[in-house]
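Fold these two proteins, one after the other.
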Amino acid sequence: MLRELKKVVEESGKDAQEFQQTANFVLANQFVSAFKHGQRKHYLLVESYHDYFSNVFDALGMKLYVNENERLAGVLPVQREAFVRLKTDETLFLLVLRQIYEEKVENFEIDNGFVATNTHTILDRYVQLVKREIPTETRFKDILSLFSRHGVIIRGKTYEEDSKNMIINITPVVRLIVTEAYLRQLESFNGVDPEDDDIELEPEEAQQASNPEESHDGGNTVSDSKESNSSADTTELTKKED
């Protein structure tokens, strides 16, 4: 890796620290977007030196994903051992976000790959689709924080007329972390914890997640949750050390 770093530095005329910082940033955040504040420089470096970063992450057991149309780059775990289980409510909220995202896309309500919604809409859809009571305010904030850390959403301002209703921008990452199989699970979910019926991502679906040309045909993956239990569904998250 040091030899490759030296080579790309010489060819690019850039400082080695730039490549190291971008690699660390991607590992810490899993996804970067050219449209997200503070991430554009990292996305552009990954896009420009795709081969170098692909080799770096491959050595770490991760697959580099770059979608030039949506200006999105990130890493997806290759080995099943890198996955952790999300709690059921976290998985269900991901499914809700994916469904809202697809509806907005179909209605052409999309801007640079992002779609806008709000927390009230998300909670209403959660109750409507999964027939569950909404989580406590603290729990919901924790779930949103998890999704924000991994680039699934960008939290915006609250509405002046309702300080508890926050603008939420759903990013294209949701398509990478939620497969079509999970989407079908939501449609058939009856409000009972699926503790005896966990969905496993099929290997071919994981392969599709790493192909940017197929990113609009199915869902894919996320990154770490500190919490897990026996009644959780499996979603692809990369483990992180906090």
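Now the second one:
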Amino acid sequence: MSVRGDYCRSIQQVLVTYCGSLRVDGGGNLQDESIYAENIFRSILNEVYGWDLLNANAAEFNNSVFDLIDRDRNILIQVSKDSSSGKIQSTLERLGKRAFPEPQRIKFMFLVEEAPKYKVVFSPTQGFVFDVKQDVISIKTLMADIRDLPIERLRRVYDLVNQEIGITPNVKRIPTCLGRVVKALIPAALNEPAPVGKVVAFRIDDKIVTNALETRRHRIAEYASYTHLLTGLYSAYDAEGCSDGRLLLQSLPADYDLAAKDSSDPSSIFDNLLDILLDRLDADGSLSDIDFEMRRHCVEIILVDAFMRCRIFKGPDVRVS
């Protein structure tokens, strides 16, 4: 397994499940959810393909022929649960009644795992371009392009899917899984913990500002709410005469230096450090029964805890007594 593979499998599972839920029923809240899906996939398509799609229903009131538009690239996209040839043909015919100053490429984002094999020959009206092999996007074709993304953009897609749709681990399992993740992350070369210096109290927001991590403020706050579990775990280790907590904290500065080796961007360093620890868990192999979302959740807790303990990143300029 690899972290890249873990990211891709998680993204695909969530997208397939989400699109499947939209097809169950077209009434009530699920109809509203179809509208939300337009904005969700607008963001995903922009990230994956580098487009600048806008919601056409916001840009042009009561537009019912297409849902998304990139004015600079002359791209129109219809987002639909209906992937039939009839849907494509109907859209092309309705577009033929519209006038644009420049030729437009029409694409379809079908909310299905895989689009059917079309036997119909589609003929768009003059002024519109459509190639069924290039312009039909399903979860399968979208994932093929996501897999080829650089790891930084792949992470952004994963985070985007998480924020928009939700990849939520089982909260009840976190304490048990956290303990196992801590043990698996301790490098084998470390067997004697160094003394842990006194923790100096500071305002966490000061450290966020000092390290230019404002874009991660929400995520840091989210995972900070779980760090009490780690504090309790470390205290239990100390009470039992076990040094696992101190060994892990001792190892993290070296991992941080490695993460910062090829980047000066604080958010990228945080992500690189996350991937270093996730790779270590994959190599360990003892946590195969813990799904990727849970492993990643636990590692994020550990990193935010280390951030709050000033084990990684610069300390804040302003301290409180």
